[in-house]
Amino acid sequence: MDWDNVRIFLAVAREGQLLSASRRLGLNHATLGRRINALEDALRTRLLIRRPSGCELTAEGHAFLASAERIEAEMLAAQARTGEVNAPIEGTVRIGAPDGFGVSFLAPRLGTLIRRHPNLRIQLVPVPRSFSLSQREADIAITVERPSQGRLVSSKLTDYTLGLYASRQYLAQNGEPKSLDQLRLHPRIGYVDDLIFSPQLNFTGEVMRDWDAGFEISSAIGQTEAVRTGAGIGILHDYIARPVPELARILPDIRIRRAYWTCTHESLRDIARIRTVIAFLQEAVGAERQIFV
Fold first, then answer.
1. What crossing angle do the helices spanning 18-25 and 29-43 adopt, rounded to 10°?
2. pLDDT per residue over 152-205, tens digit each?
3. b/e map of 161-192 (b: 16 or more CB within 10 Å)?
4. Phi/psi-derived region of residue 257, left when phi > 0, alpha when psi is between -120 and 50, beta in every other case
5. Which of 6, 97, 267, 273 has a CA positioned 20 to 30 A from the CA of residue 140?
6. Residues of the chain with CATH 1.10.10.10
């Protein structure tokens, strides 16, 4: 059985489509299809049901997926054990991150990492969702809570704080609330409740029992922009909101504390490019830790 064909099968199983898997692997669609056919012929079973809308694993495909992931883990571990200490850092690393941290902090700083390691390719996916490391949706995930299940390795990246903000123009026109009772008289901005992907993002309950936002946005960056342009009062990340001149902190005694964690699958922990990226994330945050608290 050809390992490359197994690797291609894993990509298709995780992407759910031949086309997106071919893009991720850098193979053309026809070649990828032939390699899957060759794997099915070698195993004498059908692994995938191919439809115009995507691919679905057969029962045999689900069973083989578990075996393929164990093979992958062993291959990665073997590569890490036998790799040269001074080997160049190269290959692709995909980082999944919350949009606030990914866009506001990581995106402006990852260029430094690329300049250090020109053969390293970084894929940053800064979206408000959770990432499945076991399904290889990301190689490294920045999470807002420490994972308690799965074969994952995690470490705390930093604590961070949030507070109440309004635009200076909004406050000039509508006055500044000096208490929670007064805050109830102002329009409020919050997350879309059924799209909150972690309980740690449910900040509003720590401010008042019924936040009752009139404007809900499933993005930290979107909320910041809405508050900046005067749509209402919101709970914003201090490290994002403080540098924005149009924003003012209100009710300063109200402060919410959370943390970011770096997480990766245990089968990737010893891969040089993964270690290098995680070390850079720790370095970048450590150099500017004061902005997070």
1. 110
2. 899 999 999 999 999 999 999 999 999 999 999 999 999 998 888 787 888 888
3. ebbbbbbeebbeebebbeeeeebeebbbbbbe
4. beta
5. 6
6. 3-82
Tell me whether residue 85 is exposed, middle or buried, using C-beta atoms within 10 angstroms of its C-beta: 0 to 12, 13 to 18, 19 or more: exposed
Q: Strand 120-126 vs strand 152-167: parallel, antiparallel, or unpaired?
A: unpaired
Identify each DSSP E strand in 138-198 by its residue range: 140-143, 152-167, 188-190
Kindly state the tokens that stand for 122: 């970084």
Q: Interior CA angle at 236 toward 224 and 282, to 5°?
A: 105
- Here the tokens at position 126 are 């800064």
**For the chain, how far is it from start to end, CA to CA, in angstroms?**
53
Measured distance CA(118)–CA(136) in Å, rounded: 23
The whole-angstrom separation of Cα 101 and Cα 81 is 33
Domain 91-157+259-292: give its CATH architecture. Answer: 3-Layer(aba) Sandwich (3.40)
Q: Evaluate whether the domain defined by 159-258 bears CATH number 3.30.310.50.
A: no
Q: Which two tokens stand for residue 152?
A: 């994952």
For domain 3-82, give its CATH number from 1.10.10.10, 3.90.1640.10, 1.10.490.10, 3.40.190.10. Answer: 1.10.10.10
Asked if 16 contacts 54 with a C-beta cutoff of 8 angstroms, the reply is yes
Pinpoint the residues of the chain covered by CATH 3.40.190.10: 91-157+259-292, 159-258
Q: Per-residue pLDDT tens for 86-109?
A: 556 888 899 999 999 999 999 999
Query: Which H, E and C letters describe 43-102, residue by residue?
Result: HCCCCEEEECCEEEECHHHHHHHHHHHHHHHHHHHHHHHHCCCCCCCCEEEEEEECHHHH
- Rounded to an integer, the average pLDDT of 118-141 is 85
